Structures are given as C-alpha cells and as structure tokens.
Records
---
Amino acid sequence: MSEWIPDHEWETIVRRMPIVSVDLLVRYDGGLVFGKRTNEPAKGEWFIPGGRVSKGETRQEAVHRVAEDELGISVEIVESLGAFEHFYDTADVEGVESKHYLANGYVVDLQDGNPGTDDDQHDAVEVFQSPPESLHPHIRAYLDASETLDW
C-alpha cells in the first residue's frame, strides 16, 4: 500500500504540509522498544518506531505495516493515544528547515517476531525497561497520555 514518493514531490510535501503518521509504543519483554534514529528529524536520538500513513490506508493498517516494515514484527493494538502535533526544527529534505507531523500514538503489544533493525532509519533497536536518559518530549507526551503504560 505504501508507495515511493519521488524526491521533488516529497520536498514539496515536507515544505508545505503536515505529515499524517503513526507512532508505536511497542510493549515487549517488560519494556518498550526504541530505535536509534539515523535520519532527521531526531537523528541520533532514541525514538519509538513510526511512519507516515499512506493514502487509502487506515491509521490501524499503518500501525501494522510500520511494525512489519521497521521492526519485522506483528503487533496487536492495545490503546489509541490520539493525535499529537509534532514540530521539528530539522527535516530529512535538503533546503527544508522544519518538519510538521500530525502524529497518532498507539500502544501495541508485540505478537510475533523479534524487533530488529530491518530498516534504514535505525542503527540500533533496544528494549528499555525505563525511559532512556534523554527522552524526547514527544515521547514523554505519549507516556503521559497512556492509561495502559506505567512508565
């Protein structure tokens, strides 16, 4: 369902539009799965898996696709945290100075597979039993909104 967007079109989208996305708080082995990002925004930070919602795809379908694409796992949705406005002072597009997401947060349970680094957005994936030292404020907002996580 997810289609490749040519670079010049992606630049226009990032420059002019918020990007609808899903972010996953993956519960696994008594903790949460984080990936060390290799691209902007939040490059070099421990962050939760996420990705854009494709046209014609429901947010729930996007949750399952992102889990498979980024981590090689299947998940069960436990809780929808709602929509969050995420503004970044960096972007993954040369010449674009910021990025805006309308991110939909979800708590999910890992059903099958082991989280790995199956994508080009992370150079490490780890399960944290408590928040990493420098927890990004966007992730803190998800944790604060959750009724099923006790972090």
---
Amino acid sequence: MKMKDGFLWGGATAANQFEGAWNEDGKGPSTADMMTGGTHTTPRRITPVLEEGTYYPSHEAIDFYHHYKEDIKLFAEMGFKTFRMSIAWSRIFPNGDDKEPNEAGLQFYDNVFDELLKYNIEPLVTISHYETPFGLTKKYNGWAGREVVDCYTTYCETIFNRYKNKVKYWLTFNEINCLTIPEFGAYMGGGIIPKKGDNEMQLRFQALHHQFVASAKAVKLGHSINPDFKIGCMIAYMCNYAKTCNPDDVLEAQRKDQLHNMLCSDVQVRGYYPGFALNYFKENGVEIKMEKDDEKTLREGCVDFYSFSYYMSNVVTTDKNDKEVSGNLLGGYKNPYLKASDWGWQIDPKGLRWTLNHIYDRYQIPVMVVENGLGAVDVVEKDGSINDDYRIDYLRDHIVQMEEAVKNGVDLMGYTMWGCIDLVSASTGEMKKRYGFIYVDKDNDGKGDMGRKTKKSFHWYKKVIESNGENLV
C-alpha cells in the first residue's frame, strides 16, 4: 500500500554517534565524550577525566562535521523527505550554563539545515540525545540538579529563535524513559554519576521529573516562538510479552509496560503522573520533589506527537530460571518463535504493529517511528559491493507491519530508519555493529579512511521512498 501524501520517509542519527569534531570550534565535552569504546562483551567505561591512550569513539565518530555536504547529498539521492539528527548541546553552550552561546556551533547547524533544505529534506531535530554537557555533570550531577532545567530552557530558547524558519519538527529528549532503567539510564540519559551511598533510584526519578518539567517548558516556549512548531516526545518502546498465561506473568508484562514505556509518555502526552507511577514511587521510597508550579507546567506543556524507537520485543516471566537475552536498554527471555540479530536482539516485525496499535489506542495523537533498524556485521566484497539482504528483509518486514497498523487507523506521520549511515553504537561503542544504508570505512579501533560507500539496501530504500511505501521488493 502507499502511505498518505506527505509521509516523512527518512533516516535517523545522533550527534554524539556520528558528528565527531568533539573539541573543534569551541565545542565543550559532553557526557558521551567521556565514554570509552567497548564491544558486545566488554562494557564501555565512564572516565571522569580523559585517559591518555584510551579510545573515545565519539571524539571522531564518522566525522559528519567535515563530511556533511557529502552525506546529505547521499541522503537526497535516496529521496529522504526528512532527516532526524540531534544538536550537540555542548557545541552551543560548551559548559551547559554559559552566559552566551557559541556562535561557531550555531553557524554549523545553520549550514547543515541549509544543506538539507537545499534538497527539500525536512530537519527533525532531537534537542538532547544522550549527551548532557559534561560541565553540568561536574557542577550539578547532571539532571539530578534542578538548576539544569533552566540551562536547558535557555538552550531551547536559543536554538528555537535561531532556527525558527528552518526547523519545524523537534523532539525534546531522546528515549527519555531510559532513566527508568537502573545504572545505564543514570549517566546515559541523565548525566548522573552516583556517589557511594547515593540512592540511585531516587536520583534517576528526580532527574526524570526535571526532564519532564524541562520538556513541558520547551513545548510552551517553542509554540510561543513559532506556533507552527511540532514538538514531540521520544520513547524507547520495549514491547513485552508474557511468557505464559500464568496471571503472574501477564501482570509482570503489564507492570514493565507501565513503568518503562507508559510512565514517561503519560506525563508528556497527558500532562500528569499516572496512578501506577505514584504507587511505584510510594512502594520504593521515591519522593519526587516538585516546585509549586510543576504540575501546572506539565499540564500546559503536552507534546504534539509521539515518536519512538522500536527494534525488538522481549519475553517477560516471573520464573527466574530462564536464561536472559540482550536487548535495547532492557533484556528479557528467549522467544522460541523469533530469530535474533548478531547481537542477540530478537527480531519481531509484528511487535511493531502491536506497539503502534497500542500507542495510538492510548493517546490518539500522531505517531512517528523515528528509530528502527538492524545492527549487523557487513562484509565488503572483492568487487566493492555490500550485499546486506538481511537488512532489506528486516526493514521490509517491519514496514509491512507498519502499513498494517495504518490500515487499522493509526495516524502515522513518518518513518526514519536508525543509523541511515554507519555510526558508533551507543550501547557498545562499536563500529562493527553497522546499521546504515551507507558504509563508512572505519573499524572498532578508529582505523579507516572514512570513505563512504552505498550498500544494496541504499538502492532498495530509494525505491521504497519513490513509491511511498508501495514497492518493497
């Protein structure tokens, strides 16, 4: 089937995973810049100071900073209608709380937006994508400090005013619900480094509240600067199935859906904390400190649309004898009906249809899939070709299910495949885990000439966009 006129086909990236130039033209360090490389079996480390001789993947990444014209030209060749990217906050405010913005950083994004608009590609901008300025981590322990709300609001006011005639679509925080995940979420999503003796759960949920308030303020501010702005939330959707029809398994799957998926979107879409969240806080001794106007701010700053990432589904059970498998943010248990990626993520296209139906039934606002893709090991053949049929199969199967959800009445705005050009993996820091339609010559150790090369999937996706989703062969 064809998608509706104006459907936003495109690709998605994040500044810290592909931009590079981490300390050029006045940019300050971000939390991502302090994370070492890793592998599927060796976790990334957070270093409070940079270690000599240690590899930090974000420092160079794939150097979009110096290749943006070449890369955007390739996106245009595929026919992108939109390109999801993020602004590196510390490129605009190097310490996060500077009195004046960095003009060189602002000018860089002017250049990028102008290049996109030259090809009629609509920018979709994530304001904060897993990279809090490290200066705010040192000064306030990241989002655990209420002061960061004002720093973020100032940042938003700066970029909204600067780009009000170039950018229409904005996302306030990437995968904001990662702060519901122990350990991983604190630093990645909140820029928090817990000290010995800290209540990590309290820090995470207080930081999450601060982000809710900041998001709501950004929505109100953005609409006042340009009423045509469309500002959305972004959730890492973790689709959960009960392993059995044991009511305990079913309730556990519902609990995880509420806590890790619905808590954040309920606040951002509906404007208030749901009852299950308040009960969870009570049962776990979490006390959310609110200022007197916070509840009013949340009600008045609801988002215009709901966007999310979807890669896989999980199986949930109360039987802890099962072996866990890995996943995006949260793992689960093995689903015998599904195949898995090279990194153990269970491939479930029908889970995307279920998720779209579930989200739209709950909120009845426009929805957008802003991350979906397959991380795999790609091989360059002797003739230079890269035959990633496995990626084409993955994407085709998910787009088919997406179209089935649209037939059910889901108001779907667009689809931006994750990592449209190979980039650094957020979870592992690898280049080996490739997602892109475009191959970048760089390995896990940072070696390579950065040359760009199209894969078989590049030409397939071009046909998908040309046919508005009708030609998936």
---
Amino acid sequence: MQEQKRPGLQLEIITGMSGAGKTQVIHSLEDMGFYCVDNLPPALIPKFTDLITQSPSKMEKVALVIDIRGGEFFPDLFEALSKLKSQKIPYEILFLEASNETLVRRFKETRRRHPLAPMGRVLDGIIEERLRLQELRGMADKVIDTSDLSNQQLKDQIWNHFADNKQGQLSITIMSFGYKYGLPLDADLAIDVRFLPNPFYIEALRPHTGENKEVMEYVLSNPLAQTFLKKYLDLLDFLIPHYCEEGKMHLMIAIGCTGGQHRSVALSNWIAKSLRGCGYQVVVNHRDILKSGVKHT
C-alpha cells in the first residue's frame, strides 16, 4: 500500500552513452553507500522499488544503471518512470555524455564492441545510440559530459553532487569555458561574455587567469561587467526558484569567453559567491583554465 512506503528513498537512474563512464559512476556511488544494480530490465523497476520501500530494511540510497544494453526491453523504461511518478516515488536521472570522437577512442582502446554495432563500425553504433537516447537525455536532471574528464575528475563530480546534495535541494554548478574548445554539452544555461574587454590583450595580465587578483579586478571593475552581473543575477533570481518548483535537482550554468582563462573564470567565481550568499549549494568548475598554459594564480 502506498502509505506504507518510506519517504526517505533516494533513487538514482544512471544512464547515457555506452563508454561515457557509467561503470566509474557506479563504483563511486557504491563507495558512498548506494545499493547499485547494473542493467536491470526497465519493466522491473516498479516492482524493485516496491520491494525496497515496503521492506523493513534501511536501504534508502539506490542507483540503477539502465541503458541501451536492455535491447528490446529498453523502451519499457518510459512506462516504468511514469509508474514511479504515479506512485509518488522521487527519482533523479543522471545522463552521461561524451563526444563521438571520445567514445570511438575509448572503444578502440578497450577493444570492446559497441552494443548497437557488434559486427560493424563503432561510430555507426554511437550515432544510432545517440538517436535512441535523445528523448531520455531531454528528461535528465543532470548531464555530465565526460569527454575531457579523467576518472578522478568524474569521481570528484559525483562526490560533489551526491555527497552534499540533500534530497529535494537544488545544487548548482558554475562552469567557465572557452568557445574555442566548444560548448559544454551538459549546460542548462549558457551565456557568452565575449562582449567584455579581454585581459588577454593586456601584456601584464595575459599570463594569468581570472583567479588572479589583478585580472579579476580588471574584469569586474568594468562598468559593462557590473551592469551585466546585476542583470544576470536578477535573471537567475527569477529562474532558480521555478527550477526548484519543477523538481530539478541540479542546474549547470556555463559562462563562456574565447579561451576560458580570463573573463569567464572571474565572472564564474563572482556569480558562484553571490549564489552561495543566497543559500544555494554551488560548485565551480573551470573547464579550460589551463589549456593555453597560463598561470593558475
């Protein structure tokens, strides 16, 4: 009976592209005390959660890996998620993403066959999988692009998200990035700050990053930057409560400049500090800060 279900269940659905790092995520979650099940047939999810929530045991953190390996049973996932909603069982979908080039390289390095291309080209399987997962990706509460992440960096992101994230409380990641290296695939909101004067053209500032005091003062003291920050904080002040009302668990805000070392870094740090002052859980990730050999000061 529904009234017997414990309200404390934290259910995570781990999914995404083959080769994007789901195994590493599961290992991290196991270390954090999650009960993890890999490749559970989607149709069994409602029965599995019934078993957990009606059990006298204290199993409250559960992670299920559901992906394309389910074959013909994979489409059952959408019906299973609908049943969870009707039963008022909260869940979060974590989707792991990576570029086609990265996934091809990983499959070649491990000499594994892609589940959708057992006898064909790996790239063909990746393209087909991306198409089949498109709807599920759109439903995800959090998307992590692992293209440029080491196993340790991915583990750090998982720990930052799950260890500090109290159930029902929105966590926010502010990511600085360089447009020359591509847009972050996992961004919910992306803003281009290349309209601001670039410290790169100041000889004394060029070797440093936006975490350097002089670079930060140069960027933040500009009247145009001050106006932008006020307007952007007003926008976030409007948007974030509505994301919370919709049940969103994680928000990725991407701030981009040309190289991802100066303007975007300084502005990301300032925005993160402001949001923390409003009581939000905020993590900062400077994706491209060291790619051009500038000093991390």
---
Amino acid sequence: MERPRVGELAPPDRLLMGPGPSEVHPRVLRAMSTPLVGHLDPSFIDVMDDVQDLLRYAFQTENQWTIPVSGTGSASMEAAIGNLTEPGDTVLVPGNGYFGERMAAMVTRAGGDPVFVEAPWGEPLDPVAVEDAFTEYRPDLFAFVHAETSTGAKQPNVPELTAIAHDHDALVIADTVTSLGGVELRVDEWGIDVAYAGPQKCLSCPPGASPLTLNDRAMAKICTRDTPVRSWYLDLSLLQEYWGDERAYHHTAPITNVYALREALRLVAEEGIENRWERHRRMAGALKAGVEAMGLELNPEDDWWLPSLNAVRLPEGVDDDAVIAFLLEEYGIEVAGGLGDLAGDVLRIGCMGHSARPGNVLTLVAALGDALEAQNAAVETSAGLDATRTLLGR
C-alpha cells in the first residue's frame, strides 16, 4: 500500500452566519494552542474548577453539578435525557420543532415512552396544552426547547411551564443549545432542573466540551436509579467522580477543548451576561430590521422571535439551495436552509457570539439582497441596508 500524499490543511476563510458553528474569538483559538497537560494534572484540576464556576455564571445557577460533557452538544443532550429517563418512564417532549423529535428518539433508546405536546412549527408551547398533556399522560419528565434552532422560535413563558411540571412532581429538562450565552436564560430563577447546551453557538467555541447543569433533585433521581444508565461513557453517576470532589479517573477529557471553553466563558464574564444578551438582541434586531425592510418576513412572531437564530422566509419561487450556494461561492458566507416542516421555505441565519458584530450583519444583509436579486426576487436591498445601518447607529 502506497503512502498517502496529503497536502497541508487549508480550509477556506468563511463568515459563519448559519445555525452554528459561529466565528471563534481569536483568544479562544490562542487558548487551544497552549501546551497540553494530563487530565489529572493539578494545573488542569484548576482549569476544571474555573470552567465550572464560569458555567454557573453563564447558566445563572448555583448548581454544584455543572460540567462540560466530553462531546458535542448532542452528547450533553443525551447525557441529560439518558440519565434522567429510566425504563418505563413517560417523558413529555415538544412537537413544535426538529429537536423535540430528537429528544423523543433519545427517550426511546433510553427505554422510556415519549409523548408529545403539540404546537405548530415556529410557535411556542402553550401552557394550557402543557397542562392538558400532564393531565392526560402523567409524565415523569418534561423536556422543552428554549431556543429552537430549526424554526427560530424562543419559548417565552418558561417559569409558567416549569411550575406546571413541578406541580405534577415531574423534572424539567431544557434544551438551551442556541440560547446559552446569547439569550436571557436564568436556570435557577426559572425553575429548570436540567439544562444542556453546545459551545459552538452563542459561546463561539469549537465543539467538543458541551455545557450541562443539574440541580440536586435531578442528581438524586440519577443516583437512585433502579437500573444503570445505558451509556457507560455518559453515566453522570460515574462522571461525578471526575468532576466532583474526588477527581477520580473516568476518561481522558478533551483538554484542548476545555481550554477553549474556559476562554470563551471568560469572555462572557468580562462582557457581563446581561450585556451579552443585549448585544445579541441589538445585532439581531438590526438584521431583522434589514431583512424586513427588504420585503422579507421572519418565520416566528415578534413575541417569540429568537435573536440568536433568525428564520427568514424566502419569496415565492426562490430556491433556497441556490441562495445558500450563491452566498458561499460569491461572498464566503455560510447560512443554512430549513429543517423538517420548514425545509425549502426559510433560510436560517445565525447572529451568535463573536459573529454578532455590526460589520458581519451589514455584510450579510448586502450579500443576501444580491443573492435574491440574482434569482429575480423583488427585494429592496438598499432599503434593507438603510434600516440595518439605522439600528446600528451608522
């Protein structure tokens, strides 16, 4: 067998304005180039402590069990669902987006019985429907998506939903993958028992170490299970020995990714979490004003608009794949098409983390207008740019 002849790695320089990943801050990239140490080295233990403290701040929680799971956001998702779901448990999941369906698949693999509370794609769950579902199904767990990446919709009434679940003695799991670090999220104040996220969206960190937080009530359920968690790797009763006081060996942590997450979270703390929420709202608001002034619409209503992920409805007759390809080939900008019920109807445009900056928003609006005009869509690009500049104060 001949030796492979592979050239140097030379990925293109993209402007990442899709549903994730977002642009990585230069400080985070520098952190990833620092020397490796062992995953039980005393200096790395200090790094682990820092990451846990910084994650508590980002989640707005005092939860002791706040860790980065070694893996992508789907790993923290599966850790949450797989550890809390025991065989025979009924789990209420949302039917208003793509990631509710993924929750249901994970519940089934964990031996549970998923049941849906329905809402149209792009709309939030109605508390009345959630209450009715609890009465009908009597679930042990309730999972919802705080920021639905597939539809650009935010769940606006979280404390009301968690109160319903707790009144029925159920635990609450929140998907905060597209909200942590970019959209208001208050885990303790809102009564969320378990929340998971991904680092590559509003935290602007490469995937590989994914945030997860659990309160004492949730950990008590995990530690008193009748059967072992089906995944050894993601078993939180074992992981707590590594991330808890013992720091006992469980697996080799992704050291470089933990470095990166620490630096990304330092940036969150330096900016201030509420300032960061406001920056995302302001940058995405300028994007929203621009596309609407062009003559386009966002998929969700204003009351549940998700600043970090904007689902822009395409004009009739416009091919989403052609727009995506034009933006990538002509401008080096990455956006994405719709998923599930919205496939072919929307573009998903991220405004997250380090990507949520004035120059990026202006560039995106101009390029989007050009891409749509190339398909003979009746859009007013100049009006869009004027609206965006006004909101940005330019």
